[in-house]
Amino acid sequence: MTETTSRPVETDSDLWTVIQGVELIDIRVVRWHSELLDYASSAIRDFDPVLDVDFRRDDDSMQLRWSFDSVLRSTGDVDVARLGLTLVQTFAFTEALAGAELSGELVQRFIEKTAVISVIPFVREAVQTMTVRLGLPAVTLGLVRAGETGPHVFSVRS
């Protein structure tokens, strides 16, 4: 378990309690889908990712189920490919947090400020791998900014 010796400046205490009270124990791919819709297209102009997350908990752990879906479009606004990925992220509660009540707002802040950081590399790798395996130019997702639940920029390497 990671030792934390000092509290970051400007962190709200409830969120900090959650961050200190959980340990990431698993990230599992439960859905990996790619579909080529237009065999003639070779250029990607538009990429519209949708990243949703659902929350579930029991006495000693919580799970976040991340669903990523996107349609890639060509310069002629033709749907070229459809991508989909679902990940389940599992956190164990430490003794300090076991049985504690977590509000929906607190869970949302944890998702946006902490949990997303460990999930996005999986999404980034999946998008790049799926596009290349479909015979399309590699699509690379941009960085996730603090407070966002997903990347909003991408680049295409031909």
Distance between the termini: 42 Å
Catalogue the unreliable spans: 6-10
CATH topology: Bacterial Protein-export protein SecB
Q: Kindly name the structural category.
A: alpha+beta
Order of helices and strands: HEEEEEHEE
Q: How much of the polypeptide forms β-strand, as a percent range?
A: 35-45%
Q: CATH homologous superfamily, by name?
A: SecB-like
Choose one word for the global shape. elongated
What integer is the average pLDDT?
83
**Number of E-type strands:** 7
The number of helical runs is 2
Count of distinct structural domains: 1
Task: Characterise the protein shown here.
InterPro entries: SecB-like_sf (IPR035958). This protein has a single domain (about 15-155), classed as SecB-like (Bacterial Protein-export protein SecB), CATH 3.10.420. Helices cover about 25% and strands about 40% of the residues. The chain has helices at about 15-20, 105-135, and strands at about 20-35, 45, 50-55, 60-75, 80-95, 140, 155. Strands 1, 2, 3, 4 and 5 form a five-stranded antiparallel sheet that branches. The chain has a two-stranded antiparallel ribbon with strand order 6-7. The longest helix is centred in the C-terminal third of the chain and has 30 residues, at about 105-135. The N and C termini lie far apart (about 40 Å).
